[in-house]
Structure formats: structure tokens, C-alpha cells
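re: ur question from earlier - yeah i can do the single chain one, its not a big deal. heres the input i used so u can compare w yours
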Amino acid sequence: MIRKLCRLNESRKAGIRRVEERCMAVDGTRHRMYLESDCNLDRFMKCFYIEEKNGVPRSVLAITNMEPGRAEITAFTDPDWRGCGLFTKLWNEAADMLRERGFEKVSFVCEPESRAGRAVLNRLGAKREKSEYLMELRVKAEGAGTGAMSTISRAAEDDREPLTVLLAKCFRMPRDYAKARVWGQFAEGNLVWKAVIRGTAGETVEELAGMCVAAVEGNSAFLYDICVARSRRGQGIGTRLVAGAAEELAKMGIVKIGLQVSSRSRAAVRLYRKLGFEERDRIDYYKVGIEFTE
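and the output i got, formated as C-alpha cells:
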């Protein structure tokens, strides 16, 4: 039986995690499937496809839709049930839905270690389009070493609206989604920094030029939504943002800082390497056609 759901209850999540652990043990993979639908532009879209027998999941496919017309897919099948066509059934159902909704870009997420995943993508005729590097900085006790500049400061709730505009423009995301993302950052207690360009002497006008967010857990932090206004790129603002955030996190006792960056963002990759970040992991994205034939 195939279940098509908008969201998962705790019981189904637990069942999926058990199958996922079996797959990770066999395939040598490390990244877990995201089992929430809060990132999707359409919260009512059927984004979880589950093939199950007697209530036990055997194959799972999840869809994330954070950009208009683009879907990212992760999937796995219990090692004991591979080669039985279960994934094919799920993909056909999901492809029909994506086609009906007019999706133009569909990408499968696959870890390099997953031979089974790559074999499936080969059958689909998928083409690798990019990689996402997971980078990490081991923070020294004295901080990042560059120091936060005067234009870098912690953002306040009054900054939420301008931060929304900046995020939407930088990542070309719908304004409503950007607003929900920014409001959520403050609601969740994450740390938000802003970069401001101040006017010349005698002027009071300030220009919001960049932002950076950190989610802290224990003595580790993960940076995301790092962005600089397009008109201000190439001026060292991104460097000051990340270095300033790293220094403040170090003062809080954070010893490990991670972030994720696309292989297509070569300037960003160079920047993070310059600041001392090293690549620890990689996730590959494969573009597939929406039409599927067995």
C-alpha cells in the first residue's frame, strides 16, 4: 500500500527512522531524511510517499519545495526489499503529482557513498548538477582572529522586515516564505547578525547590506542564511560577517562551527576556506526529467 501524506505523525516518523537506520548501516551513509513539511511553499502538498506492508514502511520518498517550480527529493528503500520495484511505484506517483503542479526542476539528493542511490539515478538518466559541501571550522580559544567590524552587529526584532526584504532578494525566494523564515529565526532563539553600511559624516541613513544566522546546540553552531546584497558584493562584507559571527560564538564557548555551501558558489567556497573552514562532507544533487518510464 502507498501512503501519500502532507505531514507525518510521530508513529510514522519512528517507523521511517528504523528503516533509515538499516539503510545507513548497509550503505555507509550519514544524513537523515527531513521528516517535516514546514519548509515547503505549499504546506498542503503531498510530500511524503510511503510504501508499507502491515503498517511497516519499506520504501520512502520525501519532497522538499523551497523554491517556486523546484523540488528536491530524498528517498530510500529497506535493504531487504530492494529490487522489488517499490521505489519505482513511489516515484511514478510523485512524478504524476509534480507534473500536474507544473514543476520545472526536479533534483534527487544522494550521498556519494550510496551505491544503491547512484544505481537508481543511473536508471533514471539523472545528471549531476551540483554538490553541497558541509564545511567546518574548529574555533580557537582566542576566536576567529579577524575581529568583528563596527558595521557588524546583532540584529533585533525591529530588523525583521528589512531582513525579510534582503533575504528574498538575495535568494530569489517568495517574500512570504522569506518572512516566515526570518520571523522563525527570532522565535527559535537563533543568533542573527546584520551588516550595515553607514552614510558619510553628517548622514544618518544606513543601508542593510548583509545578514548571517547561527543555530546553537551545546558547544556547536551551524551558520545559515549567509547573504550579502547584490550591489554590495565583492566589498569584503561576507568575510566580516562570518568572521565576526565566529568571534562572538567563540566568546560564548562554541568550539565547532559548520555551514553548507553549493559547489556553484565558488566565491563563497573560497571565502570560507580562507577563514579556516574545511570540507567535512558532501551531498550531491542530480537533475532528473519529470517524465519517468520503467
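The chain has a mean pLDDT of 89. not sure if urs matches, ping me
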